[in-house]
């Protein structure tokens, strides 16, 4: 598994550990709109998530990260609050984002945008990533708008049955080319 530790002043992404599995399971089980981001339909148990985590840990080119927001605490301390998940894979100079999902109570606060910015900066600096890809179901208009806002463009379309449906759905492959100048110094 690729262990990603990266952050900005408000948000951090780091490997998902067993201590965060209950929070992570909430991501999978927080409503119908989550199925687009997770690729899962129905209830997803902590045990199933633990199995997924173990499979990803055995892979050399995959990652699964928790997305955490930094919350002030007494004194100068900061508490990290679980806000979502991101997973994907790196191959040569290419990053595939498989999943990005923010818990409902943290949506529309810029956390997903910051997490993607942090991930892309990490991928460019640490793995020389040039191209980033993801897939989105055409029906997921909110997700498509989010990715387009971040500079992703439609690359191609495929038809595929998803979520146990008998008829295929239109799947949009989106792509973004990263330049090394987008990587922040430091």
What profile does the largest beta sheet have? 8 strands, mixed
Structural class comes to alpha+beta
Relative helix content:
25-40%
> Can you name the CATH architecture of the domain at 6-131?
3-Layer(aba) Sandwich
Number of strands: 8
Task: Assign the CATH superfamily of the domain at 6-131.
Answer: Gcn5-related N-acetyltransferase (GNAT)
| Strand composition percent | 25-35%
Give the distance, in angstroms, between the N- and C-terminal Cα atoms: 25 Å
Question: Helix and strand string, N-terminal first?
Answer: EEHHHEEEHEHEE
Enumerate the spans where pLDDT stays under 50 for 5 or more consecutive residues: none
Mean pLDDT: 84
Descriptive account of the structure:
The chain is an alpha+beta fold. It has a domain at 6-131: Gcn5-related N-acetyltransferase (GNAT) (Aminopeptidase, 3-Layer(aba) Sandwich). It contains 5 helices and 8 strands, in the order E-E-H-H-H-E-E-E-H-E-H-E-E. The protein has helices spanning 21-28, 34-38, 46-57, 111-127, 141-149; strands at residues 6-7, 11-15, 62-72, 78-91, 94-102, 131-137, 153-160, 169-177. An 8-stranded mixed beta sheet has the order 1-2-3-4-5-6-8-7, sandwiched between helices. Strand 1 (6-7) and strand 2 form a beta hairpin. The longest helix is centred in the middle third of the chain and has 17 residues, at 111-127. The radius of gyration is 16 Å and the shape is globular. The mean pLDDT is 84.
